[in-house]
Amino acid sequence: MNFKMELAVLKEKGLFRENQTYVPIDGAYVFAAGKKCLMLASNNYLGMTHESEVRQAAIKAIEAYGTGAGGARLTTGSHPLYEELEANLAQFKGTEAAITFNTGYMANVGTISAIMNKNDVIFSDALNHASIIDGCRLSGAKRVIFPHSDMQVLKGLLESTKCAGKRLIVVDGVFSMDGDIAPLSQLVELAKLYDCLLMVDDAHATGILGNGHGTAAHFGLTDQVDIQMGTLSKALGSEGAYVAGKKILIDYLINKARSYIFSTALSPADIGAANAAVKILMQSIRLPEKVLANADFMRRELKMQGIEVGGEITPILPIPIGAADLAVKVANHLKEKGIILSVIRPPTVSVGESRLRLTVNAKHSQSDLKQAAVTIAETIKEIKGWKR
Ligand SMILES: Cc1ncc(COP(=O)(O)O)c(C=O)c1O
């Protein structure tokens, strides 16, 4: 098979992907296809990208330190704002220390491959993010995949899988495509019982759950999670990621995580913006409260319109459609009507499980959300009624 044929097959199956260009207006709206559209597809959950304190902090950081880091952290890229951000992140997460990475992908790949090796075993939820999966693969450790959030099966696997080395349980705190929350109390118990390290990816929980502090805080288990990873790129409105935990873990990652060691540091603007966003969250719970209230409102509105919505309390609202081509059709029609949402298709989800992924943020008005729920319901019914 050649590239052309493979791409033709993707097109035929409704699985071809291409970049879409949007011009952001603020946290809630973008210009797309020549008109103003309601953005219901972004992970900018708190609208931090357009908060004036955050923007000003990015500008100030450029004025103070220039536009690029010029080197990796361990060479010449560690400008003073890094120290401030990492200290603030550690305080915010309730841990001894924190380290930043250039992306969430690099944080997961770098962390998991640094701490686990071929003598170890990793127990990974079946719906974990691709960056966790790739980190597990790269580590060379034995991988044991347990069915999504199934604690009974996980217990059995922990019981039956013998290992002379270390054991790690790793989960998304909030699952990115399903919007549900990992059963952290049971995971903590199992990790203790079977002497495992526990790692939680808070990419979609940072700034949202636990008054913004993340999944562990949501369950009151801050000191029970060994490795709390999260992103600066979603609710914090910047770029990059962090890992928070004990100082010994952070020192270890600085010395062993290859995605940290061998990559140029984030730019001053990224760090300045993320630092301002963390400070806003340390001072007030207004934005995390607002996004959860909007998520609850939208869930109820969609259900009132007869639309099935998955997830729980979080701002990720998956709407099951089934066939990939149908999901694409619905999203395209909604775009024409001024509503942008994501289509999630294989290989991100299993065949037949294509869905619309709608994300709510703190800057959406409830009147816009209400109107969007009506339009989404009308469009789904219209398209699903079509002969294929
Ligand atoms: C659960 C999860 N982990 C990690 C990542 C990667 O983060 P980033 O986009 O900063 O690379 C994402 C986002 O795409 C995610 O959803």
Strand order of the largest sheet: 4-10-9-8-7-5-6
The hetero molecules present are: pyridoxal-5'-phosphate
Order of helices and strands: HEEEHHEHEHEHEHEHEEHHHHEHEEEH
Q: Please provide the count of β strands.
A: 14
Judged by helices, strands and strand pairing, the structural class is alpha/beta
Shape: globular
- Residues in helix, %: 40-55%
How far is the N terminus from the C terminus?
Answer: 28 Å
Cofactor: pyridoxal 5'-phosphate
GO molecular function: 8-amino-7-oxononanoate synthase activity; pyridoxal phosphate binding
EC number: 2.3.1.47
Family: Belongs to the class-II pyridoxal-phosphate-dependent aminotransferase family. BioF subfamily.
Describe the structure.
The strands form 3 sheets. This protein has a 7-stranded mixed beta sheet, with helices on both faces. A 4-stranded mixed beta sheet has the order 1-2-3-12. A 3-stranded antiparallel beta sheet has the order 11-14-13, covered by helices on one side. The chain contains 14 helices and 14 strands. The chain has helices at 3-12, 52-65, 80-93, 104-115, 130-139, 151-160, 184-193, 215-218, 247-256, 258-261, 268-283, 286-304, 324-336, 366-385; strands at 23-24, 29-32, 35-39, 97-101, 121-125, 142-146, 167-172, 197-201, 227-231, 241-245, 316-322, 339-340, 342-344, 354-359. Helix 7 (184-193) links the parallel strand 7 (167-172) and strand 8. It has 388 residues and is α/β, with parallel strands linked by helices. The model has no long low-confidence stretch (mean pLDDT 95). The structure holds pyridoxal-5'-phosphate.
